[in-house]
Amino acid sequence: MSEDLLLKVERRQLPGSKGARLVRAAGRVPANIYGLGKPGASVSICGEVVEKLVTTRSSVVDV
Hints:
Number of domains: 1
Oligomer: single chain
């Protein structure tokens, strides 16, 4: 049985390359969220949670 993970995201204050670099230096993963007809949002995700997602066979994620 897979472990349920809660994917907590935080809005990035500084979008773009410089903001992404600062996010990575803090151990987080930069990301962008897009929706139908809505403006995109620059966010960051906890690096430990992302590592669990990519190293397990399957995962259920709540965003």
